[in-house]
Specification:
By secondary structure, this protein is mainly β. The chain has one helix and 26 strands. The chain has one helix at 288-293; strands at residues 3-9, 12-19, 22-27, 33-39, 44-45, 72-75, 82-83, 93-94, 106-110, 113-119, 125-133, 139-147, 153-155, 158-164, 170-172, 179-185, 196-198, 201-203, 209-211, 222-228, 236-242, 248-254, 260-267, 275-281, 298-300, 305-315. The strands form six sheets. Strands 9-10-11-12-26-22-21-15 form an eight-stranded antiparallel β-sheet, with no helix packed on it. Strands 6-14-24-23-20-16-17 form a seven-stranded antiparallel β-sheet, with no helix packed on it. The chain has a five-stranded antiparallel β-sheet with strand order 1-2-3-4-5, with no helix packed on it. The longest helix is centred in the last third of the chain and has 6 residues, at 288-293. The model has no long low-confidence stretch (mean pLDDT 96).
């Protein structure tokens, strides 16, 4: 059974789970964020860390970039700020990176598990995440989303997973994925917003092959986000980061509930973020209305309860 205890992270309250070599730290008061996934044996931190020693507390409606802008956050019902276009909430504005990342969640611990729950502000829903860790340090997160209304609720859920990156870190995905949509590219190496490209190799401005899987480290200044255009074909979706000297980190999730996957190769760029992101999601393009235009959306039925999971596992070199 995991050891669970209260502690501090950058001066604010956190709850930690320890088992095997790994320690995971969560911030119930700040969106139930996973702020650290730390290998106690090697001393390696797998979660991207924000700059500074004091935590930049986020508040509802604030720009995500003005907060800590690090860690693993729950995005719902959107990522990009937008105006809802579905009855009976038409015209309701939803803030940058959704409602959940800056809200305080209720938390309780019980026999090796941490359960955190939050209610919607502008939409009537209940969102719950239950976290456990096995004896090898693998992290299990079970989700339950309940529509408390008698109306359909279009939404996007995404795990906004910012991981530590260094030169020669490399993405790995299922081999069937060969086409992706661009949503951001400072260099335009993979095109502009809405373009498609043949993953993983594209041509740079000088006609050389560029492999978006590999992080170029400090020599590069770029930031590129993309969503795979195809639904994931394997029953269990997954994404992996291979580290030069620190093994690998793998996420996994059920593709019948979470059929899409996005990623970010962060090499500084305009945002200054040097991280690699994995983003399993129920809908692409960062907001429900744009996802619908690409037939990549998700809708919660009246009174529906939907459940899924997200696992994180580190394998040492």
């Amino acid at each position: 059974m995991s050891k669970i205890y209260h502690s501090k992270y950058k001066g604010i309250e956190c709850i930690c789970l320890e088992n095997g070599d790994m320690r995971a730290s969560f911030l119930p008061g700040q969106g139930a964020k996973l702020c650290s996934y730390y290998n106690r044996k090697t001393g390696y931190e797998y979660i991207y860390q924000g700059k500074g020693t004091d935590y930049k507390t986020g508040t509802y409606g604030q720009s995500f970039l003005e907060g800590e802008c690090a860690g693993v956050d729950e995005m719902f019902p959107n990522i990009d700020a937008f105006y809802y276009d579905s009855y009976p909430w038409e015209g309701t504005h939803f803030p940058d990176h959704g409602e959940l990342w800056a809200l305080p969640w209720d938390a309780r611990t019980d026999e090796g598990s941490l359960a955190m729950t939050v209610y919607g502000i502008k939409l009537p829903y209940r969102f719950t995440k239950v976290v456990t860790m096995n004896q090898y340090g693998k992290l299990y997160m079970e989700y339950q989303l309940e529509n408390l209304s008698p109306f359909e609720m279009p939404f996007v859920w995404a795990a906004h997973m910012m991981f530590h990156a260094e030169e020669h870190c490399c993405f790995e995905f299922e081999k069937s994925l060969s086409k992706a949509y661009t949503t951001m590219s400072d260099s335009k190496m993979i095109g502009k917003y809405g373009d498609t490209f043949a993953y993983p190799l594209v041509k740079d401005s000088e006609g050389r092959d560029y492999d978006i899987r590999e992080n170029r480290g400090e020599q590069a200044s770029d930031y590129q986000k993309f969503y795979f255009a195809e639904k994931l074909k394997e029953h269990q979706g997954w994404g992996r980061i291979i580290y030069p000297d620190q093994g690998s980190l793998t996420i996994s999730f059920p593709t019948d509930k979470v059929p899409y996957l996005g990623a970010v190769q962060g090499e500084g760029g305009e945002l200054g973020l040097r991280c690699m992101m994995l983003e399993p999601c129920t809908g692409a393009f960062d907001r429900p209305d744009i996802a619908r235009l690409h037939d990549m959306d998700s809708v919660l039925k009246p009174k529906e309860i939907r459940e899924w999971y997200l696992d994180i596992e580190v394998k040492n070199p």
